[in-house]
Amino acid sequence: MPLLITDYSWTQTDSTVYISVPLKGVRASQVDIIATDQYLKVHFPPYLFEAFLAQPVDEDKSTAKVGNGAALLTLSKKTEELWDQLMLTTGTLETQVELPAPRASGSIQVTFTPRVFPTALRESRVAEEEEWLRKQVEARRATSDALKDLKDLKEEERNPDWLKDKGDKCFSTGDYQGAVNAYSLAIRLNRKVPALFSNRAACHLKLKNLHKAIEDSSEALELLTPAVPANAAARARAYVRRGTAFCQLQLYTEGLQEYQAALKIDPENAKLQADTQRIRDIIQGSAKVKT
Q1: Going by CATH, does the domain composed of 145-284 fall within 1.10.760.10?
Q2: pLDDT tens digit string along 71-115?
């Protein structure tokens, strides 16, 4: 029975999906890749990565690069839009997908490279980094229709950056509700700035508004895409805040998953390592829960 690969990673833009599958020390020559418009298999015995894709891709325009310890797949979407998920779930497969009849593998182009890059995925992240920068420019230019309903505000109060600074100052002095108010008004003016949601999540944690903290952390993570080095720290903070909210709701398994996601981004963070281990100990019953 093959060993299923679960520690893959993926990111996306409107037009492309990028998947990285670790090769577990297997030589590139042993990797077999099969692709159709909605099915993907990367097989290198005894390991297997298999995906029924959430949406169809154009296999003729898709490529794969095998080398440097990973199979890097670049899949061209047939429809330009962001996917909610990479794969169909088992239930969705059973109710919505008519599996294709067996046929020859797709014409996805595979190249092998012995080169070693300083950053293993650097080449595949260029498009993602450009997409992230584009989104930041758009966020700064965004003008909300809420301005029409906020005519009584002072000029500075119509500036999301000014409101964010005000929220940050309120938070630093312990005025968490004041910070929530400032961030909330800034969000009404511009919903494309992830820091506003992430910072408001931190306030909700202080105020024990735990479900709201989860919602805001999730919204921040939605905006922090594609995943690139420039937003790594912000993503780690959002995962920790969502994980903390889960733990305070005594949903420790869900909390552990969030902390592990943060630790994957920042593996050398000693405090994060310790907090993650403490959650494991709570789940295993070897640590007491702080009240």
Answers
A1: no
A2: 888 888 999 888 888 987 644 433 343 434 444 444 455 554 443
